[in-house]
Amino acid sequence: MITKTVECPGCKAHISVEGDPGEKILISCPNCDLNGRYTIPGAKTETGSVCIEINNLTKIYKDVKAVNGASFNVRKGEIFGFLGPNGAGKTTTIKAMLGLINMNGGQVKINGLDITRDGVKIKEDLGFLPERVSFYENLTPVQTLNFFCELKGADKSIVPILLKDVGLEDASNRKVGTFSKGMVQLLGVAQALIGHPSTYILDEPMSGLDARWVRIIRDKIKMLNERGATIMFSSHILSEVENLCDRVAIINKGKIIAEDTISNLSKYLHMKPRLEITIKDLNGKVPDVINNLDGLENIYVKGDSLFLTCVSSLRSKVVTTLEDAGFKIIDMRTFEPSLEDAFVKLIEGDT
Ligand SMILES: Nc1ncnc2c1ncn2[C@@H]1O[C@H](COP(=O)(O)OP(=O)(O)OP(=O)(O)O)[C@@H](O)[C@H]1O
Ligand SMILES: [Mg+2]
Predict the structure, then answer these.
(1) If the chain, 351 residues long, is cut into consecutive pieces of 10 residues, what is the mean pLDDT of each piece?
(2) Cα 237 to ligand 2 centre (Å)
(3) Which ligand gives the minimal distance to the CA of 101?
(4) Atom 28 of ligand 1 has which residue's CA nearest to it?
(5) Structural domains in the chain?
(6) Which ligand has the nearest atom to the CA of 102?
(7) Residue 350 and which of 4, 35, 38, 240 are 20 to 30 A apart at CA?
(8) Confidence (pTM)
């Protein structure tokens, strides 16, 4: 049994809740009467229990195998990134996972329930942001969110709070038909948050948003996760995925080509860190001693900075070789391989 203090999203009062990891607790705020559901966070482990289980999922459109035997798991309590180039099959996978399109084969389980048998029950505790968000143009955002609250059986008093959370409070009386693309996207995010679900599937949640709103959505995802939610999201913004995600799956041409933590991806792709060594009076010339060392790649010089890529164990040899040759090292920085590097290597290796 775990005791947690939860902040009411309405009046910000602190409420104490008790339960086992993964247990969903119905909370009524004693201060403002707002009702909500809270999932007691579970410990994140390497072998955490499974929230979303995809087995051999296949979707064929006429002559296109949009998803070709995809299998992966999203663990309870993790933020999971779903990546792939344009047309790789991300949206098709997500739509099939949610039963929005029929699949040609495979199985999808979310929180232990099968999407083909228990779709309605699954959606009661699921927040979904589609790739192309669209709402009735003649409704205001308040009317829109009220409508979704009714559909989900959620308390409508959350609507003004959600609109404030996504920065649309000033537009709450305007018709959605007058909204910009980014504003519609933000309304879509607010819609996904209704009912405090324990699981979120978001298809490109940051698409079309400026840097400020990307940051707000990022913080929202983090906060939901800290409160125990499991979040799977697709994105083209690899730096965001890198910052946020515990693990990622990469899909290319309908097939899952990797599923792991970002550091493990770099390891098994044998990716090496990049070094930047600042040397006094280098003046744009690569030192001969460096050209003569084995195991160094992508060597170049810009001003007093020498850049090169090598395995970590060669780093000290590079430094001593330079110092022994009389070079004075002022600074040295290491850049670990990025998710973008791993992504490009995986996709290129798969062509
Ligand atoms: N309704 C459809 N009819 C025919 N082909 C489709 C349909 N929907 C998707 N496809 C095809 O399936 C493949 C996968 O598309 P999907 O939209 O899943 O890719 P994606 O990874 O989400 O791409 P993006 O990053 O551009 O959103 C593409 O070749 C696409 O043209
Ligand atoms: Mg897509």
Answers:
(1) 71 77 74 76 62 96 93 95 94 96 95 94 94 94 96 92 93 94 93 94 92 89 92 91 92 93 81 92 93 91 95 91 95 89 84 65
(2) 13
(3) 1
(4) 87
(5) 2-39 (no CATH), 50-267 (3.40.50.300), 274-335 (3.30.70.100)
(6) 1
(7) 240
(8) 0.81
